[in-house]
TrEMBL record:
Molecular function as annotated in GO: 1-alkyl-2-acetylglycerophosphocholine esterase activity
Keyword list, A-Z: Hydrolase, Lipid degradation, Lipid metabolism
Record protein name field: Acetylhydrolase
Alphabetical list of PANTHER family matching this protein: PLATELET-ACTIVATING FACTOR ACETYLHYDROLASE (PTHR10272:SF0)
GO BP terms: lipid catabolic process
Stretches of the chain forming a coiled coil according to its record: none
InterPro entries: AB_hydrolase_fold (IPR029058)
Organism of derivation: Dactylosporangium siamense
Alphabetical list of Pfam families matching this protein: PAF-AH_p_II
Amino acid sequence: MAAAVPIGFADTAWATPATGTPARLTLPGPTGPFPVGTVPLHLVDGSRSGERRDLMISVWYPAESVGRYPRAPWLPPALMQTLMAASGFDPAAAVAPLTAGHEGAPVRRRTGRLPVVVFSHGAHGHRAENTVVVQQLASHGYVVVTVDHAGDAFSEFPDGRIIVPDLPMGPADFADDIRFVLDRIVDLAAGINPDVQHRPLPAGLCGALDLHRIGMFGWSKGATATALVMNADRRVRAGLGIDGPMQPTITTDLDRPYLMMTADFTRATQPSVAEFWSHLHGWRRNIQAVGAVHTAYSDYQALMPQLAPIVGMSDEDLAGWIGTLDPTRAVRIQQAYPLAFFDLHLRHRGHLLDRPSPAFPEVMFIP
């Protein structure tokens, strides 16, 4: 939650819950026809200046059967407590929600290889912060790879070691991580297990990824990283930026599809965003939900209204997290528009992004 803390929130001492039993938060489930599987992988990149760089990723995918596979938590318990404390909350106030992802479930493969989407989180964030979008895509037949950018992430490794944001990292550093992960996706597609401990992969995962249909999305700093990756690596065919500041200013032309979902960092208020928009020479759209703030297109829109009464948060403080956009509607927007974008450009189907939709009256198309 630290990634989403409005200015001054980290110094706020929130109330301790009245009961000794922490509440379990919940996430809305995905709408797709397939159950969801997930597996964490531990990667090591030794190619940059000869230094070992440990990264945690998760792979999400449509699953064949999930009955005997447990649901994965949004964050492991110790990491959830670390994140709560860093955000100024009582670490014992709430337990992380369970996701729709079943750990280690076999991959569903009945129609060939599956399109791939990679996710990059925001500053001081973690790879779970847009799980609503991630599990939605997986339930509709995508493989989604989420990445913790070590040094600017809350992350836990298989040995129980926890790291917190402690390094000055820019979007270019995030982009370097993603390009390394793209290489490991190539390994997976070739049947190679990139996990450092060589833990067993879910049945059917190796060879399931379609390297000719790769997209990427990112929130905040991850949105800027998405553009940088696309400028440097043509393996990524379509990019979605969720309220990215696009700083440092990107001045390289981009000829592939890019969707901007803006809230606080708009073309009208941020010259860097307007400059980036001018360099989009392929398919482009800019949409914005009325009442949205920076965290409106993330899991916090669903989680913070649940946490607010537990910790005694005022309505004003809650609005700092979620704006005036109704949380239920915000979740529907998160589920609908990223899926529509990747369906359009990786599967060549769908019409939601052709024009404003009466089903989503909050969503404006910014010309």
